[in-house]
Write a structure and sequence with these properties.
Layout (H helix, E strand, L loop, with lengths): L1 H14 L2 E5 L15 E3 L2 H5 L4 E10 L8 H8 L10 E8 L7 E9 L10 H12 L3 E3 L2 E3 L4
Parallel strand pairs: 2-4
Antiparallel strand pairs: 1-3, 3-5, 4-5, 6-7
Length: 148
């Protein structure tokens, strides 16, 4: 019995935890495998592309990795936004993990009334998608790739 408890605890510690909370109390959807999420550092930065509709809140940590940075926590949990039908998030709060885990809270959203990508030039969008396929996070027109 103790062996099973230890194994279960170890598995949870290695995988890390995240939560998705819908803002309108509707059920969380299953995530699509090919969902790419664009990360904005602030609400103000996200609103530069138009009015947004907030859909859910995603929280997560850098647990289960060797790098305890906010970028790691974002990379691990940004795809959870797809579960509420969003392909964009802005970072609401963050705690860097100098001596412990990094924590991040992101708000997943979509642009209200728009059917196309939000005011992003095709070249920038291509570069952001390429960054994401290589395991990076596209932030402020720069690709940030963890070095671990």
């Amino acid at each position: 019995m103790i062996r099973k408890t230890v194994m279960a605890s170890l598995l949870l510690a290695l995988t890390g935890c995240s939560t998705v909370e819908m803002l309108d109390s509707s059920p969380v959807k299953t995530a699509a495998n090919d969902c790419n999420v664009i990360v904005y550092q602030t609400l103000k930065q996200a609103e530069k592309n138009g009015q947004i509709e907030e859909l859910c809140i995603v929280t997560g940590t850098s647990s289960g990795s060797f790098s305890h940075t906010v970028a790691t926590a974002v990379e691990k949990h940004k795809s959870k936004a797809c579960q509420c039908g969003a392909t964009n998030v802005y970072i609401q709060s963050r705690t860097d993990g100098d001596l412990g885990l990094a924590n991040v809270t992101m708000v997943a959203f979509r642009y209200a009334g728009k059917k196309t990508e939000p005011g992003i030039g095709s070249e920038t969008l291509k570069r952001a998608r390429l960054c994401q396929t290589k395991g990076g996070v596209w932030v402020n027109d720069v690709c940030q790739i963890p070095l671990d």
